[in-house]
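JOB MANIFEST
job_type = single_chain_structure
chain_count = 1
residues = 154
[input]
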Amino acid sequence: ESLTGYAVMSLHLMVNQNLREKRIYVAGYRGQWEESAASTPIKRCGGVAGSLLVSSTQPDYFVPARCMLVEQYAALLASAFACEDFYEPQLIELGLVPSAQEQRPYFSGFQQRVLQLMKEAAREQRPMTYSQAEQQVWQQIEEELLRVSYQGLE
């Protein structure tokens, strides 16, 4: 669905020099002034922690020297992560998600959901850190968004 998704799945830099042209992959939710974009996975320790997307207001901006710079910056970003933050590429399954506008309601109550989950865990005498609760809520939101997206395809 997106340039970053293709970069993560291919494990290589992906570039779209002209976002106005219809392509297989685009920058995701294209900003008003975006004309070209490059994305590369953030990888280290044999895994992937995410991706870096760089956009330009100019078409054909990502010449080889700039592409190399994007890749080097992603390598620098990778050093900010611990090895356990990287996922084995074969375990990554990307899915389609609804538009940003459709996603907003799911994120607007994020903090309330985290606190509610922690209250439930405390009530059940199940120790849970704030980080664990956040992770669980992120996973719930992911499942909900994928379900909404797949229902839209049926």
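[summary]
The longest helix spans residues 130-153.
The helical segments are 3-10, 64-78, 100-108, 110-123, 130-153.
exit_status = 0
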